[in-house]
Structure formats: structure tokens, C-alpha cells
């Protein structure tokens, strides 16, 4: 005699009687979550790293600049994972479809593909182009700017890191796309660049050097001086250019020297030059 | 079924019992299942405008629930606070064939699987999800799902030699 796994699971699980769900508590809790997002409290103390870098240049202009099209593009196919690549200036291949590059000028090299969609910026505001083909704003109440922040996706978790400007203050934000929850938010100097995101740790660069920020604990640590550039970090492997990182944060990583435009495979096992 | 624009209250009432059972099977105890489910619905409510536009809002909540349960175990507090013997969930109907020892042995073996393996088994053989869909729920590759499923079945066969894996035609 054998026991069929599928039948057994249905036998056991289907006869579990669900307790009534507490809709009022859910609504109240959901409203609290909304309020917390709205309040967008800055997590931890402000990171004291100075300087301005072009990539996150929020200094000055809040001119929204030219309108860019983020109209729905029709359903995409993420069933095999999101495949996104481009023939620069010509065709963008995205979720099993092809688009003229001009139609999606907002999907530039700073856009980040994730299993949940493509993170990009529309006039400085982070957006997520979802499988439905609809682009949704990840943040409300942020400034429209001409800034062009960087965005990074974590290959180890459903997290993304991006930059926003709110009332003139630059902030780095980490969000869990699987739950649409903010994990952490940090006030940063204008011009801070997000160089990498690995296992939830963000690598922030200013003219003074590179610092790590763990949004779960709020802890920041120095990683490297201004001559060092972090090219990529994946699965605990840190690819850098310039002098080797020698700050306290460096001890947690396997350091691999490379060129600034190189990348690591998601498992950190290989360098893609 | 496409559920665009569905009302949250209606969605909650319709999906709660189904998702509770899945959460219970993955978590292995009623309290963890209810906590994870409650938290997941709160998140869904907070983002309802976005969630309700998704093709399958229920899949969105299920993904949060499963990862909440697995994440809780990964963080470790669950192991410290979970009672040694999880109490029988309330309102559980006695099975008609409680005397079948093999049946109970297999269910015990399922409950004894490591959390991620148990989640893969529940999603595959109870929820009838494909490997791709499971990979999406767990936020991992299809290869990882395959290896977890393979390890789970090997464990189950070791602990319950009379197990058969029935596949849908």
C-alpha cells in the first residue's frame, strides 16, 4: 500500500478549519503601514559623508524637465524571469517583447531589472514597470527633479535601493518589492551615488569615499576612500577599482580587483568584463 | 480569474480560508499561520491600489505569507518561542481514517521537513503551482526549486518508504 502525497496533503490540509480573519484589525494595521510610509521617517542618523556627484545631483533644480512617456506598454512576460536587454539606441528587449528605444527612453542604463519589474526614474521619481505593463510610483510626495539617481537591485533578496529627493533633502531608500514595504530610509548628502546593493547592504559613494549602510540596523560603516570605486557586489564578493577598500566594512567581503565598468555574476563567482 | 479593481473586503473574505490552510501547512502551527496571514493582508491593504491591479492579488498575498513564515524561521526567534509540541489547531475535523498509520507517518514526515522544503512540497502538491510559479513565490531560481523538491522527496521517502508521488495527468 502506498500513500499518495498529493491526496495526503489535501486530506490533511483541507480539513483544517480556518479561524475567522479579523478584517478590522487588518484594515487598522494596513492604515498604520500607510501612515508610516507617508511619514517616511528617516532611519537612523544622517550619514555624514559629503560632496556631490553627478549621478544623484539633486542640488538646485526642481524643474521637472521634459515629460517622458510612462504610459502602459501592455502585458509583459516575466514567467521565465524578467529578461531585459537593449541594442543601445535601437531596440529594447523586455519581458519577451521588443520596443523601439525612443519609446522607452526612461529605461536607461540606470534602470534596474528585478523579478518584480523594472525600476526606473521618471523625473527623479522611482517607478516600477510591472508585468502588467503598467508603471507604478514607488514613492509619493517626492520632488520631481532633473536628477538622475542610480538604482540597484539585490540578487540575494527582493530588495531594491534607490534615491529620492523630498523637500530638497536627498534620501537613499531600500524597499522590499515582494511586500512593497520600505525597509529603510537614510538622509544622504546631495549627489550621493548608490553603487551596489548586496544582501540588503547598500554601498553609498560620495566624493569623500564609500560607506556601507545596513537599513535593517541603521548601521553605517566606512568602506573605502575616495580613490576606490566599487564596481559591483554580489553574494559577499566585492569588485573594486583603485586602492583596495581598507575601512571597517571591508572585512565582511571577499575583495576582487577589477575595472570600474566590470560586473559580477549574481553568485559572485565570475567577473564579466 | 482576473480580479482587477476587486474590493478589498470581498477579497479578504474570499481568500482568507484558502490562504490560511496554505499558511498552516507551511508554518506547521496555527498561531504562526495566523500571524503571517494577518501581516500579509495588512501589507496588501496598505498597497491595495497597486495590489488590486495585479493579475492575481491572492498570489501576491500568498508570496508575502510564505516568505514571512520562512523569514521568521531564518531569523531564529520562532525556534526560541515556538512551543515544543505545537497544539492541535482549533476546529480541526477528525479524519475518517485516523487508524491509517502510514498516512500519519507521511504527514509527520512532511511536517518534519526543513521549512523551505516543506514550502516547496505544499506549493507543488497542494497548491498545484508549477516550478516557475514556486520560484516566483520563494524569490529563487527554478533550479533551486527543483533541488529543494528533490531533497524534500528524498527525505519523505526515507521517512515514509511507502510514499508515492502522484502527478496530475
Strand order of the largest sheet of chain A: 5-6-7-8
Give the averaged pLDDT of chain A, no decimals.
76
Give the N-terminus to C-terminus distance of chain A in angstroms. Answer: 58 Å
**Based on CA inertia axes, which overall geometry of chain B fits?**
globular
What's the Cα radius of gyration of chain A?
Answer: 21 Å
Largest sheet of chain B: none
* Fold-level CATH name of chain A: Neuraminidase
Q: How many distinct folded domains of chain A?
A: 1
Main sheet overview of chain A: 4 strands, antiparallel
State which percent range the strand residues of chain B make up.
Answer: under 5%
Number of domains of chain B: 2
Distance between the termini of chain B: 23 Å
Supply the CATH architecture of chain A. Answer: 6 Propeller
Give the rounded overall mean pLDDT of chain B: 75
What percent of residues of chain B adopt helix (DSSP H or I)?
55-70%
The radius of gyration computed from the alpha-carbon positions of chain B, rounded to a whole number of angstroms, is: 17 Å
Could you say which structural class the secondary elements and strand pairing of chain A correspond to?
A: mainly beta
Which range does the strand content of chain A fall in? Answer: 35-45%
Low-confidence stretches of chain B: 1-5, 73-99
Tag the structure with descriptive keywords.
heterodimer, A: 273 residues, mainly beta, Neuraminidase, 4-stranded antiparallel β-sheet, 21 strands, B: 169 residues, mainly alpha, Arc Repressor Mutant, subunit A, 67% helix, 1% strand, globular
Structure summarized in a few sentences:
The complex is a heterodimer of chains A (273) and B (169). Chain A has 273 residues and is mainly beta.
What does this structure look like?
The complex is a heterodimer of chains A (273) and B (169). Chain A is mainly beta and 273 residues long. Chain A has helices at residues 5-14, 23-39; strands spanning 3-4, 84-87, 91-94, 97-100, 112-114, 117-122, 125-129, 135-137, 151-153, 159-166, 169-176, 181-187, 193-198, 201-206, 209-214, 219-224, 229-234, 237-241, 254-257, 263-264, 271-272. Chain A has a single domain, classed as Neuraminidase, CATH 2.120.10. In chain A, the strands form 6 sheets. Chain A has a 4-stranded antiparallel beta sheet, with no helix packed on it. Chain A has a 4-stranded antiparallel beta sheet with strand order 9-10-11-12, with no helix packed on it. Chain A is globular. The termini of chain A are far apart. Mean pLDDT of chain A is 76; it is low at 38-69. Chain B is built from 9 helices and 1 strand, in the order αααααααααβ. The model of chain B is unreliable at 1-5 and 73-99 (pLDDT under 50). Chain B has 2 domains: 1-92, no CATH class; 99-169, Arc Repressor Mutant, subunit A, CATH 1.10.10. In chain B, helix 1 (8-27) runs parallel beside helix 4 (57-75) and helix 8 (131-138) packs across helix 9. The interface between A and B is large, with 49 and 61 residues.
